[in-house]
Design goal:
The structure is a single chain. It is built from four helices and two strands, in the order H-H-E-E-H-H. Helix 2 packs across helix 3. 64% of the residues lie in helices and 4% in strands. A two-stranded antiparallel sheet has the order 1-2. By secondary structure, the chain is mainly alpha-helical.
Length: 92
Amino acid sequence: MSTTQSGDQNQSWKFILVLAILAVVFSGLFDHDVWTPDEPRVAAIIHSMYLTGDYIIPQFAGISFVEKPPVFFVMSTLLMHATGLDAIMQAV
């Protein structure tokens, strides 16, 4: 009888832990400003990289943007090609 009660306590403890983790992880998803100052700039850099095909030096408004390493922008552009989002970017 002791093992059944111990097993129930163990399961309820795990369930409470999972609920707490989910609350922490998802708490900031719905109260998040979509357009922070960086997001439009990053989208413009990726769009420029897609249009020009220059994967070495990212450009923002025709000016070289070397404040951040280009790996993120290159990977985003390649992911865009792989998922078919390049057709959407052409229309923008």
